[in-house]
Amino acid sequence: MTETPSTTAAEFTITREFDAPREAVWRAWTDPAEMTHWYHPRGFTTPPESISVDLREGGTYRYTMVDEATGEQYSTGGTYLEIAEPERLVFTWGDPEDPAESAPVVTVTLQEREERTAMTFHLRGIAGHPGDGNVHDGWAEALDILIEHVTGSPS
């Protein structure tokens, strides 16, 4: 019997560049009034009344994505692990009822580049790749919508 070693790490990284100041991108990640505009892939909405944010290390957040076609709802949330405004945000992400210790962890790093912002999004705990039709693609779409929201133009 031949075994095929797994070379796929349970993580992935997505990068984006914004024609916007770092503070605007930070605010979009942390302000519920901003999050409602982009915290979902295409075909979903995130109603503002579903979003709660306690932005402090150890604080929690929650939101509900609603499938526009079916009305199905997906509650999501986690715990903020590290907050270094406006350059680094680390939080768990997943079912709000799951223990934080076993939840995937998202790290968002924002770097200033003159008038622009370079963002690195890293998710540890779920293997993803472009075209997976699942978590990677969902976050990639959400981050495209984030660019549109922050810059006011299509990504």
**Approximate helicity band:** 10-25%
What letter string, H or E per element, gives the SSE order? EHHEEEEEEEH
**Major sheet size, sense and barrel closure:** 8 strands, antiparallel
Continuous helix count:
3
* Uncertain residue ranges: 1-7
Average pLDDT reading? 93
| Morphology | globular
N-to-C CA distance: 48 Å
Q: Structural class, please?
A: alpha+beta
* Oligomeric state of the chains in view: single chain
% residues in beta strands: 35-45%
Total strands: the figure is: 8
Radius of gyration, whole Å: 16 Å
Descriptive account of the structure:
The chain has 155 residues and is α+β, with helices and mostly antiparallel strands. 19% of the residues lie in helices and 35% in strands. Strands 1, 2, 3, 4, 5, 6, 7 and 8 form an 8-stranded antiparallel β-sheet that branches. The termini are far apart. Mean pLDDT is 93; it is low at 1-7.
